[in-house]
Amino acid sequence: MIDKGTKSCRARRPGVPLRDHENGNGDLTGPNPVDRGKYGSKIHLITERTGLPLSIGISGANMHDSQGLEPLVRGIPPVRSRRGPRRRKPGKLHGDKGYDYRHLRQWLRNRGITHRIARRGVDSSQRLGRHRWVVERSMSWLAGCRRLHRRYERKAAHFLAFAGIAATLICYRRLAK
Q1: Which residue from 50, 101, 148, 154 lies 20 to 30 Å from 112 (Cα-Cα)?
Q2: Full strand arrangement of the beta sheet holding 39-47
Q3: pLDDT tens-digit map of 4-20
Q4: What are residue 74's phi and psi, to 5 degrees?
Q5: Going by C-beta distance under 8 Å and a sequence separation of 6 or more, which residues neighbour residue 79?
Q6: pTM higher than 0.90, yes or no?
């Protein structure tokens, strides 16, 4: 039997369900703009200075990174400091050129967060690399978890839960040293 509903016309046995990435079902999935339109998800991450994840989120692969910044910043939990009250917002936020929009800069300014976002056409990517490698390293730690490397879950809440567990394990391993 040939299944015409998928992007590829492969023969499959009757009664065998398609995987989520084959038929595009599932919450928060979208066509990937760089991988021949295959459906997938994107993991968004905010880390602190040493690479510990503070806030994690997922979206469809076709959603622009700038649209995920506000929910991530709102999702940062209060962090205990050595003295004084808990910090409810980061002191400074570094971002690459994908976050260079006037409304995002204004939103961060209104919340009292100092931003350091590279400007398109002005700043080179080399200067921001001093801070960006920390986030890239944390993303590679997340990618080391097999359950996150390929999305098997149909429900976005389940995938986000596994991403949260992986972030918790990263924090535990880092703080146990």
Answers
A1: 50
A2: 30-31, 39-47, 53-60
A3: 334 344 444 444 444 44
A4: -65, -25
A5: 48, 54, 86, 87
A6: no
